[in-house]
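Interim report, section 4.2 (structural modelling).
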Amino acid sequence: MKKALSLLAAVAVLAIGTTAMAASMLASKHDMTKYGTTLNSTGTNKEVCVFCHTPHNASRTRALWNRSNSTSTFALYTSGANEESSNWYMSGSKEGTITAGSASLMCLSCHDGATSIKGNVVNAKGTITLTNDTVTGNANLGSDLTNDHPINFNYANVQSAGNQTGKLVAATGTMVGTAKLIEGALECASCHDVHNTTNVPFLRETIQGSQLCLQCHIK
Ligand code: HEC
Ligand code: HEC
Ligand code: HEC
Ligand code: HEC
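Predicted structure of the assembly:
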């Protein structure tokens, strides 16, 4: 009985969390239903989460992910201090390349501007038709990320490196202030929360006064 009650409580918490999330996701730039006919597309009941999540048979162990990776080869930022220490990179990767398990590949399965938004969905019960099926414009980062903020490296290793003394804020658990480490690494989702429209564009902290940057960088 006690177990059943706590299970009920857990389900209630989950339901509230999801409703709040859906409210901010709907009609946001991450609401793909605006591009056309999606699953269960009668009235306003189009499926929003399916482009990224599935309850079963997910493509990776993280976040019940419903997409295959992009087939592009990505090149990462390598200039400056970042070049100096090989242990900054995730194991299995070398400088300038991305690891196969990188959480940033989740974002890049759309933001490479080449991968089909609907075609790369792993589990969908029904037909999806989209007028916009790839990311275009400024949100298309392409596969050359050498001109984008470094990603896919171990934050603690960098933060504690001798040449970084006094330059970076130490992490507390998975958080660096309001920025978030993903499996210990700095990834796209460290700065962005794809579900939250409070700080445009989906930022974890306001960019006013460069506050997002100052979560990690000491200046
Ligand atoms: C455009 C893609 C996208 C859409 C659409 C999306 N999500 Fe997410 N979601 C992500 C990504 C990427 C992550 C993992 C990164 C992170 O924690 O921000 C995530 C993480 C989550 C998590 C945390 C899971 C974990 O393992 O930490 C939950 C819960 C979640 N999403 C629920 C939802 C719900 C409910 C919807 C629909 C209302 C939704 N998401 C729509 C991309 C999306
Ligand atoms: C299912 C495809 C998909 C995935 C996965 C996805 N996005 Fe997007 N994202 C889009 C589309 C489509 C847009 C809208 C582009 C436009 O309007 O030009 C967008 C827009 C954005 C924007 C710009 C918002 C604005 O207000 O201009 C940001 C930032 C963004 N995404 C970050 C991310 C990050 C970070 C991840 C991973 C954690 C991610 N996205 C995952 C499809 C996706
Ligand atoms: C260090 C923090 C940080 C990281 C890491 C990061 N972003 Fe961003 N991103 C930002 C900020 C800040 C902006 C807003 C910039 C502006 O408004 O000039 C932004 C803007 C964007 C935009 C909107 C571009 C536009 O001009 O409309 C997209 C799309 C985006 N990011 C996707 C991603 C993806 C995908 C990744 C991972 C490959 C990523 N970001 C990693 C901080 C970050
Ligand atoms: C989640 C923590 C985090 C956030 C948030 C963050 N950074 Fe970084 N940034 C780092 C780390 C770690 C490095 C790699 C160490 C280094 O190169 O200084 C880095 C590297 C850089 C570099 C390259 C330095 C070099 O040596 O080549 C610049 C420039 C930079 N960040 C600027 C920004 C700006 C601007 C913002 C806000 C829009 C921002 N960062 C947000 C953690 C962060």
